[in-house]
Amino acid sequence: MSIREIARRAGVSPSTASRIVNSKNVSAASPQTQERIWAAVRELGYVPNQHARQLKRPELDQKPQNQNLDCVYARTIGPYLDPFFTVLMRAAEITAFDAGYNLRYHYSVADIQDGKAPFTDTNSDSAVVLGRIEPRSLSLLKKWYKNIVNIGQNSAPDGIFDQVICSGYQAVRTCVEYLRSLGHKKICYMGETDNEQRFQSYLDAMADLELGDLTPYVARCLFNPTDGYEATNRLLDSGVEFTAILCANDMNAVGAMKSLREHRLKVPQDVSIIGINDMETVCYLDPMLTTIHVPLEEMGHLGVKLLIDRIEGGHTSSIKVDVPFTLIQRESCGPAKKRY
């Protein structure tokens, strides 16, 4: 397997493929072209020539060759591939490749049927798991893999495997505190709720507002724009009074803002919106979305480095790395205003 074959499969020149794969020169091609190149790397099982690389980088001399890592999306991936996953996966893939490993198999828990893996020819005993792990999926993954690192926003019990976490629980706490500082009390939650620490954080943070049953304020939906749009429609049709929506994912916020516009409600004059993740496109929304910045690229890099360190005997105890987040104040939040 050569870089020329990667270039042929991706429809680019060998020099462009080489700059993306070997030097990580992201300015050498558009994001779409980069995706085609890395997809070709995965499909063809390309592994860098370790002998040639060692001439330039002697520290690779002791690295295992042709080491495959699997990439598991811990929750069902629908028609939308959340940027949360794409950014994490790309950072993990680049870091793995640079260390002489191949992040080869990509599948989600939805691909697991009757407790059987969706592949039969992998020789990997190590996996990068992205996102929230359900208990059933966790038990299966622990049977299949000796080494696991989980990267996401929901902490698992300590001692189970290595983790790189940017706490969704604390992120939601920060969102609620910020909205309350603007005078908001009737705050809705939008997003997933099952086994989700962001939802539990919402319940805990709202407990002292004496709103009674919070069920009318909860819009359960998957993390994508369509579900966010439909969930906001349901909130508005229900007649519940609210002045802010806390979206546990930026994708939901995109849909929520579309629904509010169609109902002739202004953001933030009528309803404030806050999201989580700070995906690249939200600063182009009108108004620009206030959100929690989660350093996904750093998390992807750290996660794979932690996994490789375990594979190569660098540590044996389970390690958890807590990565800080940042509240990014833009235009979608304002002082509370009574709407009714």
List key phrases describing it:
340 residues, 12 strands, alpha/beta
How would you classify the helix and strand content by structural class? alpha/beta
> Count of DSSP helices?
11
Distance between the termini: 66 Å
Number of strands: 12
Explain this structure.
The protein is of the alpha/beta class. Helix content is 39%, strand content 17%. The chain has a 6-stranded parallel beta sheet with strand order 2-1-3-4-5-11. Strand 3 (126-130), helix 6 (135-144) and strand 4 form a beta-alpha-beta unit. Mean pLDDT is 86; it is low at 51-61.
Topology:
Elements: H1 3-10, H2 14-22, H3 31-44, H4 50-56, E1 67-73, H5 83-98, E2 101-108, E3 126-130, H6 135-144, E4 147-152, E5 162-165, H7 168-181, E6 187-191, H8 197-206, E7 218-220, H9 225-238, E8 244-247, H10 250-262, E9 272-277, E10 290-293, H11 296-311, E11 320-322, E12 326-328
Parallel strand pairs: 1-2, 1-3, 3-4, 4-5, 5-11, 6-7, 6-8, 8-9, 9-10
Antiparallel strand pairs: 10-12
Helix pairs in contact: 1-2, 1-3, 5-11, 7-8, 9-10
